[in-house]
Design a protein that fits this description.
303 residues, 73% helix, globular
């Protein structure tokens, strides 16, 4: 007797616990393996790994960080959903076809939502915690600074090869993996467990934003999670949020690439240029209209 489908008849709550256990074990295994491989792949001693990985000006160190991200992303986002699906016969909704109108609407939404998301980012970054949480504020700012340094190191692209590597590593893998985890598994599990689809969309969006551990970008990422969640709910196909997620990530990478950035200047993609409330409101209203059109276009209606 094989293991395929052995947890098929379990409740949503038990399947959620099972998924958490699978995810924890997978992350642990893939993290240990990736760190064990680093000294051999990048010719660095175990004792020097800490210093080596914190040298963001060293291209060899940045490549090592990219390797770690790829390996750990597979262990966190891709392996657990696929293994969970095997053990429970869970449907990730990857077989449904998409019509052209839904695809175009999803891409348009991710393009037009950018000013609104940028405005939310500005508001979120200006957040100041109460004085008694000053220590937490300082820790959050330090974490954010480190994340920004890593992001800038990853996005330092000098060739087309660097661009395509980043599109694969930062756009495609997260789009597939994060949607498998948060929409494909968690959103559906929470809906099955509670019977409340809107609650499931909100909780999965919250977890989607929280796992990035970038506190001053929590709100915009949460809003993007809501958009992706409803795209999945209305369309019944995981490919739609995967496409939208990839579009969002790829835009940021492409417009950071010097060949494009030198020729195309888009204000709201530049963090140094503030987005005003009028631009944000127009973006929000346009996205609301497009989301309504997407809802009307797709076959699954809200309950």
């Amino acid at each position: 007797m094989g293991f395929k489908g052995i947890f098929y008849n379990k409740t949503g709550g038990l399947q959620f616990v099972l998924f958490c256990m699978i995810t924890f074990i997978s992350v642990l295994v893939f993290t240990l393996i990736s760190y064990a491989l680093l000294p051999f792949l990048f010719d660095v001693g175990f004792s020097d790994l800490g210093f080596f990985l914190s040298d963001y000006n060293n291209s060899k160190s940045v490549n090592a960080l990219k390797f770690l991200q790829l390996f750990t992303s597979v262990g966190l986002f891709i392996v657990p959903p696929l293994l969970f699906t095997y053990l429970t016969l869970f449907q990730l909704q990857l077989k449904q076809n998409l019509n052209r109108q839904a695809v175009l609407l999803a891409i348009a939404i991710m393009l037009i939502v950018t000013p609104f998301v940028a405005y939310l980012m500005q508001w979120n970054q200006a957040l100041i915690l109460p004085e008694f949480l000053e220590g937490v504020q300082m820790w959050m700012e330090a974490s954010e600074q480190k994340a920004m340094q890593i992001t800038e190191a990853f996005l330092a692209m000098s060739s087309m090869e660097d661009l395509f590597i980043n599109l694969f590593l930062i756009a495609l893998i997260p789009a597939i993996g994060e949607e498998l985890l948060f929409r494909g598994v968690l959103q559906q599990l929470f809906a099955k467990w509670t019977g409340k689809i809107h609650f499931a969309v909100f909780v999965s969006a919250f977890l989607f934003s929280a796992i990035h551990m970038q506190f001053f970008g929590f709100l915009p990422r949460f809003v993007l999670g809501l958009i992706l969640g409803y795209m999945f709910y209305w369309s019944g196909s995981l490919w739609l949020p995967i496409l939208a997620h990839f579009t969002n990530n790829a835009l940021a990478i492409i417009f950071t690439y010097h060949f494009v950035a030198d020729k195309v200047q888009i204000g709201f993609l530049n963090e140094d240029i503030e987005v005003n409330i009028s631009q944000a409101l127009i973006s929000f209203l346009a996205v609301a209209l497009l989301m309504f059109l997407l809802y009307k276009n797709t076959s699954i209606k809200k309950g």
